[in-house]
Recover the amino acids of this structure.
């Protein structure tokens, strides 16, 4: 493979941008249809992203369009490449899987575009695909190597036993996981997630990502899982997975994590189950960096959905540099302001302007898509630099800021 794309291929790929804008989603849907005819390949992927919402085909269509638009300026795609590489490592995607994707993608382009997909265009996209594939394979190889050689690290799937199970709210339950082999675990970077291979009778193997909600401790991980109404995996974990259950787990992954080297104040801003990576960050700061000022700001519906309230309160009371503020959208009659929560309503950019150090803090955000859209854009409009706004989205990051 060469280190550059040919000028001809760059020209032809850029020429397909209008077609991708019109037919990109049809191409990616067809690509997955082709690829998932092979069950071994199908089982590599998180199928919850391929259901009614079609979030993964949408995300891939957006990514392919961005690649075509920036084919002559690939540096602009570096953050997206890192995110994809981290997801692939979590799913244990290996170099030998890439040819299946290439065949499915080129076949889908031909199926959807018909005669407009000339041999020259298909050849150009083939070259462009393999150029990017080798970039990803190289980055993923480096990540795999780093994980395998780190203390407590591993590659692929490792058996973990559920050591404890704790209900945190009406919709969130925490699970503490200890490796079955009794050996140490890799110290994750606060904010990262674990990928799970879950076998449920009558189902294809399920792949799910769950954020780690505990600080690094060398021995265990904790995940805190929201029960989704139609969620096969989350309902199984809540209702059937008991202490002692064995789960297959990939090493920690993800490019969203706390910068523990920064002396700047930290604002942890979450909505709903978005608190899970924030809890990992909060505990890590309390344990390792108690001199850092932290503003923990969380919004949820009411006391029924408010998870980890006592844990946050304990940390805030024990560490003067931690300030915790909780918003309830619709408090119940039994929810007491000043005790269970601090403010009624939604978190606002105006409140953050008045109560957090906008000019100096790093902001870490996690929550539903409208939540992210409001605050990533809103904070930027107040003058917070983009390199101080960090966010995580549960699922494919399609149209987070534009939809």
């Amino acid at each position: 493979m060469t280190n550059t794309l040919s000028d001809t291929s760059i020209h032809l790929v850029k020429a397909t941008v209008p077609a991708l804008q019109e037919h990109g989603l049809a191409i990616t849907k067809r690509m997955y249809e082709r690829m998932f005819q092979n069950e071994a390949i199908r089982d590599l992927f998180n199928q919850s992203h391929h259901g009614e919402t079609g979030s993964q085909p949408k995300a891939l269509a957006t990514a392919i369009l961005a690649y075509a638009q920036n084919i002559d300026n690939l540096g602009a795609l570096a953050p997206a490449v890192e995110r994809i590489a981290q997801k692939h490592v979590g799913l244990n995607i290996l170099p030998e899987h890439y040819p299946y994707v290439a065949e499915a993608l080129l076949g889908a382009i031909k199926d959807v575009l018909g005669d407009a997909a000339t041999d020259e265009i298909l050849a150009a996209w083939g070259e462009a695909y393999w150029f990017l594939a080798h970039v990803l394979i190289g980055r993923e190889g480096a990540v795999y190597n780093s994980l395998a050689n780190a203390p407590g690290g591993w590659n692929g799937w490792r058996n973990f036993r559920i050591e404890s199970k704790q209900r945190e709210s009406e919709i969130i339950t925490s699970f503490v996981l200890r490796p079955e082999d009794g050996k140490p675990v890799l110290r994750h970077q606060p904010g990262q997630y674990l990928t799970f291979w879950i076998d449920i009778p009558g189902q294809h193997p399920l792949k799910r990502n769950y954020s780690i909600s505990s600080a690094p401790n060398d021995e265990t991980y904790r995940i805190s899982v929201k029960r989704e109404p139609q969620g096969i995996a989350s309902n199984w974990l809540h209702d059937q997975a008991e202490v002692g259950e064995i789960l297959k787990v990939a090493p920690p992954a993800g490019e969203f994590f706390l910068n523990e080297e920064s002396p700047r104040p930290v604002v942890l801003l979450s909505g709903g189950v978005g608190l899970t990576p924030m809890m990992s960050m909060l505990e890590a700061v309390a344990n390792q960096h108690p001199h850092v000022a932290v503003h923990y700001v969380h919004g949820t519906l009411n006391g029924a959905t408010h998870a980890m309230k006592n844990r946050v309160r304990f940390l805030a009371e024990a560490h003067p540099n931690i300030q915790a503020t909780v918003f309830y959208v619709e408090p119940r009659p039994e929810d007491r302001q000043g005790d269970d929560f601090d403010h009624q309503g939604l978190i606002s950019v105006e409140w953050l302007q008045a109560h957090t150090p906008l000019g100096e803090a790093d902001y870490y955000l996690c929550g539903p898509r409208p939540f992210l859209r409001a605050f990533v854009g809103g904070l930027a409009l107040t003058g917070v630099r983009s390199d101080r706004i960090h966010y995580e989205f549960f699922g494919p990051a399609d149209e987070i800021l534009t939809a």
In short: Confidence is low (pLDDT under 50) at residues 397-403.
